[in-house]
Amino acid sequence: MADNKTAQEYAMERARQKRSMDYLNMFKENEGYRTKVYKDTKGNRSVGIGFNLEDEGNKQFLKKAGISLDEVLGGRELTDKEVIKLYNHSLTQAFKDAQQFDPQFNKRPETVKKAIVDMAFNLGLTKLNQFKGMKAALSQNDYKMAADEMVDSNWYTQVKTRGPRTVKLMAAAAR
């Protein structure tokens, strides 16, 4: 049975899938992929792709998703499907935070969107909002200055190799 999609609809779906995989690969590189609990760089118990088990909102999501926090903390390994479910929840929140941080987010070049989403995923909105210089540079569409502001922060050195990769995404739009 034909699904009656046009060539353009197929192309848009392929582009959406590619974008989705690009984000997943970026976060696997930046956060890692672990099916068992580990401590992140701040000492928070986490699992999957940077899913912070100490966060109250995340605890509620686990319950809603039918995943027992006690079992996970007790050593139960997550399935790949569960890891992706938690990742999708975190990614959705990161996009919401990125859009709240930058009112022009949806109009930005893709590399800038990825940089902002990566920072939102890593920091959350409260800490992302502390990047006032970056936000001011974005309001002027000055991506080089936004990248410079990212480098000139404690975050840049704390996140090790993630910092230069994320800055490179932002700076790519300045060319």
Word description of this protein:
The chain has 175 residues and is mostly helical. The protein has a single domain, classed as Lysozyme. The chain has 9 helices and 3 strands; from the N terminus they run αβββαααααααα. The chain has a 3-stranded antiparallel sheet with strand order 1-2-3. Strand 1 and strand 2 (45-48) form a beta hairpin. Helix 4 (80-101) packs across helix 5 and helix 5 (110-128) packs across helix 9. The longest helix is centred in the N-terminal third of the chain and has 25 residues, at 7-31. It starts with 6 loop residues before the first helix and ends with a helix. The model has no long low-confidence stretch (mean pLDDT 96).
Q: Give the proportion of residues in helices.
A: 55-70%
**Widest sheet: strand ordering:** 1-2-3
Question: Major β-sheet, in short?
Answer: 3 strands, antiparallel
In percent, how much strand structure appears in the residues?
A: 5-15%
Mean pLDDT rating: 96
Give the CATH level 1 class: Mainly Alpha
Our count of domains comes out at 1
| Span of the ends, CA to CA | 47 Å
Structural class: mainly alpha
SS summary, helix count: 9
Q: How many β-strand stretches?
A: 3
Order of helices and strands: HEEEHHHHHHHH
Radius of gyration: 18 Å
